[in-house]
What does this fold into?
Amino acid sequence: MTSETPLTSRQRIRRAYSPQTLETLGEHLIERLGEHLSQLQRRDEVVLNWKLPEPNLSLAHETLSTAGDDPELLSRFRGLIEIAIRHGHNLHHPRYIGHQVPASIPLAGLFDALGSITNQVMAVYEMGPWATSVERALIERWGAVLGLTPGTFSGLVTHGGSLANLTALLTARNVSLKESWSQGIGHSNRLPVLVTQADAHYCVTRSAGILGIGTEQVIKVPLDGRRRMDPNALDDILARLRKEGTPIVAVSASACATPIGAFDPLNEIADICERHDVWMHVDAAHGGAVSFSEKHRHLIDGIARADSFICDAHKTLFVPALCAFVFYKDKQHRFETFQQDAPYLFDPSAPGMANIDSGMVTIECTKRAATYGLWGVWSLFGQQIFSDLIDETFATTRLFYEKLCEAEDFEPLHEPECNIQVFRYLPPSKYDLSEQEVGELNRKVRRHLMESGEFYIVQTNLDGVGALRVCVMNPLTNEADLDQLLSSIRTSALQLLESE
Amino acid sequence: MTSETPLTSRQRIRRAYSPQTLETLGEHLIERLGEHLSQLQRRDEVVLNWKLPEPNLSLAHETLSTAGDDPELLSRFRGLIEIAIRHGHNLHHPRYIGHQVPASIPLAGLFDALGSITNQVMAVYEMGPWATSVERALIERWGAVLGLTPGTFSGLVTHGGSLANLTALLTARNVSLKESWSQGIGHSNRLPVLVTQADAHYCVTRSAGILGIGTEQVIKVPLDGRRRMDPNALDDILARLRKEGTPIVAVSASACATPIGAFDPLNEIADICERHDVWMHVDAAHGGAVSFSEKHRHLIDGIARADSFICDAHKTLFVPALCAFVFYKDKQHRFETFQQDAPYLFDPSAPGMANIDSGMVTIECTKRAATYGLWGVWSLFGQQIFSDLIDETFATTRLFYEKLCEAEDFEPLHEPECNIQVFRYLPPSKYDLSEQEVGELNRKVRRHLMESGEFYIVQTNLDGVGALRVCVMNPLTNEADLDQLLSSIRTSALQLLESE
It folds into this structure.
């Protein structure tokens, strides 16, 4: 094969489907990823390969501009892999302490690759018999760990926490407003509301917008002193709504809410929802994984009393994105989501299969084998690994909090309940900055650290003022990293103050 | 390390994050997948490893029941991979001719694995600078191939066709009913409708249910003799709705509809939608890829006139699930989906980034690097490979149609427009079966072929009668496979008839 002879259509297809090529390129990929992971663990690389969108977009276009007849497939492949690594995010660097996205267990990605390369999918059981089975087994296992009663509950897996919340709230809407699926929201006389708390993830309000409830029909329960949903305020709100006769779709609690990682008091909320006969939902995207830890599972006490709740394995079970679970306390509720229109692909010659066909209960029709990664690491290491990861990363966060308390020029903005810590650097008094200016300074420091590749942390707003936020999502982040973070923030802030 | 000494938490974590282990296990995986693909291409394996759900579920539970301290990690890994392969679907077998899920280009899975193992994600640009850039470049490229005008359109990538249709129809709803996002569907006086055609995918009606429009508020335009949306009927329906003052969310056309792969006449529909000032949407999940083929692109003439349309790369661009594209003719419309609530994670210190942050326009917040596979194969082989795949699989389907026409005991139920062919086996007249009984017989034959692992094809309902359906989603399916399929169906049917 030379570059002078144009390939035929069939030759191009045979090249693309060649098992030998898969092996040759795959071996290179694995070797390169092993080396990459070693470099990151040695802290031999930047955390983030920061570039503005424009040059990255130009390079992406350049890679796509090819005739594709390059005879040196391995060399072209190596070049592409190198570009992707050199322009991506190094989430496995122990100094990535940023969003609620983990330095995932690398081996989980291998199981995920098995699913991708062989293209295992679901919708109907027969298209993904193993993918469907491991998903079902994991729902049963994790549900039991979460305190649900085997045989009485059900669940599903979907592409991310936002979609999981949307699915569960759709179910809640259909149960609360019986005709809304078939006749629409416009059919009822009184406008329904969705109740959540002030720090809830934006996807809860978005769900109200999507589901035809309306974002202005979201009632936000005030927070208590620890930024948790205030149960007394919730009780008052529900009492008022019931008195008015306003239809209530659900109460959506958070475990935890994203800003500072505060866990709502689920047992108290469950008592109140039971008393007012309201569907209780919990967004436990981040916190559901504490169920594996003897030490921290108390944070979600009461979650098994909720009618529905969601947990993201791709957050605190440390598997790659996306792998989100929805649980229903009453297993029949899963059939309320779409009130069972029976689509064409469900075969009347095997009606019993509908009980296991994932497409009956998920917004996705074709769905990838999203749980292969979780199934693989659980089956390799046992469920103990999830407890280890929670305990280690929570302990590291606690250590960071203690360091913030000790440092004179830092202020932790709360005591951490999990692996999230919000704080501010406080500049020397001689600069005489207002609270807003301190917030702005912290944001600038964050941007500097991020762009330099030294650390990756995030910024947030707390009561309108900028702050720094870390989330320990790598179990290899150690004390030296934390000390260096404080030192780098301090240095960067002082440089910024001097240069202004 | 021996199995007698229990591992500490840190030791377990170091094992799970070891770069050397990643390489050792990864090399085995790649070698095994190369061998597996060779076996399938040689037709040395069954197509589907059929087992009922119960034994698979038991085995899945068994694999999860482990203490996890097995010192022989490679051997345990090999065992797990073997189980997953031996109990999964062999979609890469050339005798898989079933759902609209491809025998994906294996190398696409390697690029996907790069994204998974390093956990590249999006929502904000800085979390996935390369993932965001290749996604954006692919939207620009494919959009131009589809006939959109560079600089004027926009798009997004999401997890599957159902979610893509939901996202586009949500945008259409918000544009058509201006207050529906903030105030809900219940606020308007007149109940809105969604117009589609009788063979549209079930997710269109589901979208009406999800969006608060109501599944009974879906108006289905009758089909013409080729099962395409009848433009005259559409014109009449829209005229009546406009006269009544009924709010119309959108007209959703299909390119193609799933039952027989019929392509709606998009130019005629566009004329009508323009005349009545209605949002035109096209579900081109399956058909969008014909844009790459000189020979077949006429099938979607007019698609670039639609206000929104969707195309699944994980169908006819032959990449692994899931990778669905939404396109908006007017680039500003992407900001109507959520009417831009500004969530906490969008950083006020870099407001320009909102233009590229994927979370602003997708239902997903955290989103995996879903386009790495497509980016990789396009960059390796050029866009010509997509044309090759369309042309080859469509030609194979045409050949199958000709064989059906020639055979006396088979009946093609339509002339194929793409790679979908619906047909029936016709038993000898001596059995004197009714039309319904012939349909049932065809369903039973299908189940037999599927369970035996000889072929994987699907069943469908056409006007209430069971039929067989193939979709050629593997470019390596050849004439001998087609001959064998007819022969196997015939043998299986006659055996069933004799045994009854």
The CA atoms of residues 9 and 449 of chain A lie 49 Å apart. The first strand of chain A starts at residue 121 and ends at 122. DSSP finds 16 helices and 13 strands in chain A. Chain A touches chain B through 184 residues (CB under 8 Å).
